[in-house]
Design brief:
It contains 3 helices and 4 strands; from the N terminus they run βαβαββα. The protein is an alpha+beta fold. The chain folds into 2 domains: 55 residues, no CATH class; 31 residues, no CATH class. Strands 1-2 form a two-stranded antiparallel ribbon. It has a two-stranded antiparallel ribbon with strand order 3-4.
Amino acid sequence: MSFYVVNTGTGRAWGKAYWLKQEYPTERGAKIACTKMNKADGNTSQWKVMPRSEYDARPVKMVERTNMMSGLKYMEAEDTPNFCSPASEAYWSM
């Protein structure tokens, strides 16, 4: 079992990049990282430890976006990276 450190406000797992989540193999390691991040932010409840199975099972918020090429509206997961979204120029320039 692995663990993530999740922001309670946004619901996103911490990682060095938007699409890369830091995965901890033990709960102890995740708790240590969580404590350090909460102390650095000055807010003791901003970050929490969550098992990967629970993180993957949570519902993802859907948002309405407009396809850049066709102009049609569609629904997309909120956590879709910009370069994977047809609503962005980066998607169409690859």
